[in-house]
Each structure stands twice: as C-alpha cells, then as structure tokens.
TrEMBL record:
Pfam families: Sigma54_activat
One Gene Ontology term from the biological process aspect of the record: regulation of DNA-templated transcription
GO molecular-function term, one example from the UniProt record: ATP binding
Domain Sigma-54 factor interaction: 177-240
Source superkingdom: Bacteria
Residues in coiled coil: none
InterPro entries reported for this sequence: P-loop_NTPase (IPR027417), Sigma_54_int (IPR002078)
Name of the molecule in the record: Magnesium chelatase subunit I
Lineage per the UniProt record: Bacteria, Thermotogati, Deinococcota, Deinococci, Deinococcales
Length: 486
C-alpha cells in the first residue's frame, strides 16, 4: 500500500510533527534548514547519482556549470555576468529544480514562513495562539522562485515593503511593527530563491537595502527600523558593460556576492546548432538540411567578429534562433503559395533579414552602410566559411570556368523541385556536386544544396551575386586572385 504524500497528510503543525521527517521536532527549536542547505543537499544527491543538473543549458559543461556548482556547494549567493542571450535567466530558473518538491509554510500569512521557526511577527503570533493546531500549507518549488527585472524606477518599497497605515489601524499595532508592513518581493521570496535580472540598473539606495536586509537582517522604512532575518538565496544577473553604460553595482553589495560567474556565447558552431535546434519553433514537415542549419549558426559567429557590429552589445543567441524560425516560415509560405517542397534554402535565409538586423547594434561604419547591407555581407561571409569548412577542397574549376566564359545563372525561386534541379544541370558539375552535399535523394534537398554551393563560392569570392543571379567575380576580385581568368 503506497502512502499519501505529505502535502495530503499534514494540514496542521501537529500532523506535520507526526511525519518521519519532522519527528522529535518542537516549535521554536531553532533547527531551521536554510534554503542554501536544502539546495546543497539536493545538488549533492544529484552529483552522486550522475543526474543532469541543468537540462537545456548547452555549452557550459566545462566552464560555467562547474563554477556554479562550486558556488552552490559553498552556500554562496552569486551573480552571472554576460552579454545578452547567454542563458543567464534560464540558469537562474533552473536552480529551482534543486529545491525540495514542496515545503510546509504557515497558512494565511503573506510571507512564506517556517511553521516551526517563524521569523515574521504575524507567523510567531499565530504559532503562539494555535500551537499544534496551527494551519499549514505546502509550497511547491515553482512558487519558491521570485524574479524581478531591475529598472531605475524600482523602489525599496517594491523589493522590501512599506508601512501600511490601514493595516496597522485594523490590527491595532504601531506603525513600526512588522505586522503593519506590506511586504515587497524579497520577503515574499522567504524560504526560496530571489533573482534580480540586470542588477546594475537598480538605484544605489535600493542595492544598499538589498544587502542590508540579507546581511544584517534589518532595514529602515520611513524612519522605522524593521528587522527580518530572511531565509533567501539571492542570485543576480547583469551585463558586464552595465557598470559603465547604465549604472553600476555598489561596492558593498558586490563585496557581499559570493561568486561572480562569467557566461559566454557558444564556442563552437555545433554547440550553437544544438541550442538553436532546441529553442527554435518551426512547423511540422519543414526540412532544414544540415548545411543550411550550419550556415544559419555561422551567421551569428560572423556577426560577433564583424568590425561593424558593436562588440559591447554582443550578438545574442536569439539571432540564429529567430533566423531559423523565419527561414522555416518562408519555406512553408513558399510551399503553400507555389506548391514547392518545404525545404529551407539560402533564399529563405535572405528572407529572414529582419531577424538579423533587429539583433545587431552597429558601429558608425555599419550605420553608414546600412543594416540590410551589413546583414547581407555577413550572410556572404558565413556562407563562405560554412562551405570552406565542409567542402573547401572540392574541385570546382569546371564550374568556375563556365562562369568565367561570361555565363550567368538565375536560381529558380519556386515551383517544382525537379524542374529547378534540371535547370541547375545547366551549370557543369553543379548537380552532381549538389547530390554529394545533400546526401539525400530528395530533389528539394538537392536544390537547396546546389544553391548553398553557389552561395558558398560567392562567399569565397569565386563568384559574384546580384539578388538570385550568379556570375563570374568582379574584375577587381579576379585581379586580386592572381589573374586566374586572364
């Protein structure tokens, strides 16, 4: 016979003390199990069992995660420093999986409070009044995570709380009594995790209130000293450039944060592809060939290295994710309108320009050239890099010679894939090379491969391109390459 879960069995403090986990405990015994200890115990168990700690976080196994695990084992608060789109918020939210499935708290109070050792005046009063009949409720781990996006207009009242004169009058207490206080987000995160995103955007006085309530357990609200010894794990995220761009983290708070952990973008295209495949949403039936997925990811890598893109702002991992979604949507639209097969091609990547231009902050040189032109140039470089990585040693002299003789080729943009593949046969060697790259008998995938080959040769400056029209390189490029066509 299976036993009922604790949340069904125990509805009062007396019932809770009858369970094995709380047997022998007494009210006000001082034996609080802190959130940091709870996280450490569950983390230790998962490490021993070889369980995955942070599902969905890719590319940090050798860098960020070991530092994060060390901070949690050391019972430290920490801050994640990194540019946008580096999974900082995802990591903070994933820590909730290291909490117990649920914990008991006193029912009927605003601030989650330990039924055996309450820290709030209201909880202490209820425990003294009801004793073992104190009603309790069970708080699931998802409700023990409180997140606040920092903005300059956030006040101490928002985070800590404020004196409520009406509540004081109703309860008959003094204004300085914590029972008359309207709690903010931080006290409501008691017995849980409180996360502040973009910490540097908080006003200095609010930052001071944060470390004061956590370290000293007290804060002054409208001249009244309020004491709250909260049990909270405090975690932060921030952009390292925020220290000079929009604000800074005050020195006393920075000094009280146990670990400063730096995040980063994927160091390898394959890791980036894994992240994009995991996060991008696309319709069923749309096919993304591997070489196209690699090209989409390479665009983000090229943008991060491009001198016309602001390095301080970074190029978010959301760029390839959004680009993948738009490219798939364009392939689906083409299939619906023109009867084409829903296979993503290079032309669909160009249709996804809004996903690129909206995710890059340009330097002065880039602004002069224009976001669309910079994005198209980055696509060209990415195509050249992706092509060179996989097929740079391929012999394309016959193909290049055909273009050298003055021939041009406009790639069919819609219709039947077999017809497009037949048109590609006009270029010597292109169809056979496309079959090798595609590694598929599907005509639509081979068409995508043929277009990728031409775009790759364009990226390596062996061809020129004007919209969908491919031709021999411009004369100045020929000369730079040693007069090969002379």
């Amino acid at each position: 016979m299976t036993s009922q879960p604790l949340s069904v069995q125990a509805r009062t403090l007396g019932e809770l003390l009858q369970t094995p986990a709380y047997a022998g405990r007494k009210p006000f015994d001082g034996g609080r199990r802190l959130v940091h200890d709870e996280v450490r115990e569950n983390l230790t168990r998962k490490l021993r069992g070889g369980e995955e700690l942070f599902p969905g976080v890719v590319g940090y196994d050798e860098t960020v995660i070991p530092q994060l695990v060390n901070a949690l084992l050391a019972r430290q608060n920490f801050i994640l420093l990194g540019l946008r789109g580096q999974a900082k918020s995802r990591i903070l939210r994933a820590i909730t999986e290291l909490l117990d499935p649920e914990v008991p708290v006193i029912a009927g109070v605003d601030m989650p409070d330990d039924p055996l050792n309450p820290i709030g005046a209201e909880g202490q009063h209820l425990l003294e009044a009801h004793g073992l009949d104190l009603p309790i409720r069970w708080l699931p781990r998802r409700d023990r995570y409180v997140e606040k996006l920092a903005t300059p207009d956030v006040t101490v009242a928002d985070l800590i709380g404020d004196v409520d004169p009406i509540k004081a009058a109703r309860l008959g207490t003094a204004l300085g009594d914590t029972r008359s206080m309207h709690f903010g987000l931080l006290p409501r995160a008691n017995r849980g995790i409180f996360a502040v995103n973009e910490l540097a955007d908080l006003a200095p006085k609010v930052q001071v209130a944060l470390f004061n309530i956590l370290q000293e357990g007290d804060v002054q609200i409208k001249g009244y000293p309020i004491r709250l010894e909260l049990d909270v794990m405090l975690v932060f995220s921030a952009n390292p450039e925020d220290y000079t761009a929009r604000g800074k983290i005050v020195t006393p708070l920075k000094d009280r944060i146990g670990s400063e952990i730096r995040t980063h973008y994927p160091t390898d295209v394959r890791l980036g592809m894994d992240i994009t495949a995991q996060e991008a949403t696309r319709a069923e039936g749309v096919t993304v060939p591997g070489f196209i997925a690699e090209l989409i990811e390479e665009i983000a890598f090229q943008a991060r290295e491009d001198g016309r893109v602001d390095k301080m702002s970074g190029v978010s991992q959301r760029l390839p994710i959004s680009l993948m979604e738009l490219a798939c949507a364009n392939a689906e639209r083409r299939a619906l309108v023109q009867g084409d097969s829903p296979v993503v091609r290079v032309t669909d990547i160009y249709a996804g320009l809004p996903a690129i231009t909206g995710k890059m902050e340009l330097e002065y040189e880039g602004e002069l050239k224009g976001a669309d032109n910079v994005a198209k140039d980055i696509i060209r470089k990415a195509a050249g890099a992706a092509y060179a990585r996989g097929y740079g040693s391929a012999d394309t002299r016959e193909l290049e010679k055909w273009f050298e003789e003055g021939n041009v080729f406009r790639f069919p943009q819609g219709g039947d894939a077999a017809a497009a593949l037949k048109a590609a046969a006009e270029v010597p060697g292109l169809r056979d090379f496309a079959a090798q790259v595609a590694q598929s008998s599907d005509d639509a995938v081979r068409v995508s491969a043929a277009e990728f080959i031409l775009e790759g040769l364009y990226g390596r400056k062996k061809l020129s391109r004007a919209e969908e029209l491919y031709a021999a390189p411009e004369p100045e490029v020929r000369q730079q390459r040693g007069g090969r066509w002379n």
